Amino acid sequence: MSFTPHGKHLIAGEWLDTDLKFRSEPAHGAAHEFSAGTVDLVNRACEAAEEAFWSYGYSSRAHRAALLDAIAEEIEARAEAITLIGTQETGLPEARLDGERGRTTGQLRLFAAHVRDGNYLDRRHDAALPHREPLERPELRLIQCPIGPVAVFGASNFPLAFSTAGGDTAAALAAGCPVVVKGHSAHPGTSEIVAEAIHAALQKTGTPGGVFSLIQGGRRDVGTALVQHPFIKAVGFTGSLVGGRALFDLCAQRPEPIPFFGELGSVNPMFLLPNAVVARSAEIARGWAGSLTMGAGQFCTNPGIAVLVSGDGADVFAAEAVRALEPTGKQMMLTDGIAAAFRQGRDRMAATAGVEHLLATTCDGRAATPSLFRTSGAEWLANHALGEEVFGPLGLIVGVADEVEMLAVARSLQGQLTCTLHLDAADTDLGRRLMPILERKAGRVLANGFPTGVEVADSMVHGGPYPASTNFGATSVGTLSIRRFLRPVCFQNLPKELHGGDIVDCVGTPALRRRRQKAHGLPPNPPPSLMSVEATSQIERRGGN
């Protein structure tokens, strides 16, 4: 199935052109001309999204689930064309595009099921107590409600799973929020055909066109206008620390500040504990090499740092890592800009005092081979620049003097998406000492594995303290990510005639009350008067809420 992009923007159900153009820069195959985004298109898309919100935001969960399922079906119907244009634009192999497409459609269907289930609404109901003394209690109901239109910035490294119909878009649509996507210039053709799939799904389900818009390319002022538009109520972003921080600051400086859910940068350190190193350093090194070079090292969960105690075991690990990495052929970087940044980071690392270059790399044009460096724990602690992400197939081994220095290296870390422990049973004591540090530093802590696989599931967290993300309480993967685009609303003494379906379904929360009473040392079933005065005072004195 062939596909030739027409190069237009999708704005509220219409394919629109502009006079300003740009050309794609594919890894192979023909380049195509695309219409570049403008501030006027941003205004039109955001106005359409706001208008659509008044119907879509209050549509049934069944309707939203049907839309998500329909998008998945329409993407699958274009599978061959998506893989063709995606491999041409990114240089990624067909198997990677096929797998990422499956992840994308699976994610959409997971959210469809999650919406149908309804548990994400966190429905709560406290019945009225009209005879409570000294004051009666009103009836209270709570549900999570959609916040309004959401802006999504497509990622360079995942043309499907973190782009036009990726996790941010799926979560926002599931919540009931219209989406305006700013497509990434690295893969505009892929974005266009996925937008066609979404457009077809909107038509199939009778959903307003303003629920989804795609704006391609454009100057920096287009992104600025999007995050500053008054109708946009949140932003989802996956990209660089510099670009993400600039957008984050713009969101904070708005007259009405909005949340910016940015996933920015992480070196995803691994801590190899002594007994695990003695038992299986070669095995761990080979696994690390595979994870380090997956997708040419262009995963946000790429484990760029390996920390272990210096000695014979560390030398074996380093030698085995070199042997595992050496045969790796040239891999295609996603864009010329990413390749140039990789060369810069590699050269900066090579020129750093106290850093040994174990494996040289080549990076001609967009084709790169892996690079490996080694330094000491003391050098790491003295030079914070060693902890900066180099996006690409580059690894750094940090040899620490002892367990005390390993703990110091862990404490020195900035926020991370992941931290990994490789340990055996005899390493449990050191592992226990590391755990409080690592869980404070990362959104996901792994044992005896590698972080490059991010499961799309209820329990997944893909986020972490800054600079891994700009909101440590959120995740961009898994069903919990829907919470980013919801806010709790309490309905007090609301007449039944005004109840929507989701409000009616609110249920009592006796289990929640019992947990709260137990936590504050209260009797299990106090009389209403006690709960209203004495119990409330106890909770306030003990710092409850």
UniProtKB/TrEMBL annotation:
Record InterPro entries: Ald_DH/histidinol_DH, Ald_DH_N, Aldehyde_DH_dom, Aldehyde_DH_Superfamily, ALDH_KGSADH
Record Gene3D superfamilies: Aldehyde Dehydrogenase, Chain A, domain 1 (3.40.605.10)
Keywords, in A-Z order: Oxidoreductase
Domain of life: Bacteria
Pfam families recorded: Aldedh
Residues covered by the Aldehyde dehydrogenase domain: 32-456
Alphabetized SUPFAM superfamilies for the sequence: ALDH-like (SSF53720)
UniProt keyword annotation of Oxidoreductase present: yes
GO molecular function: oxidoreductase activity, acting on the aldehyde or oxo group of donors, NAD or NADP as acceptor
Signal peptide: none
Region (Disordered): 515-545
Protein name (Swiss-Prot/TrEMBL): NADP-dependent aldehyde dehydrogenase
Organism listed in the record: Sinorhizobium americanum
Taxonomic classification: Bacteria, Pseudomonadati, Pseudomonadota, Alphaproteobacteria, Hyphomicrobiales
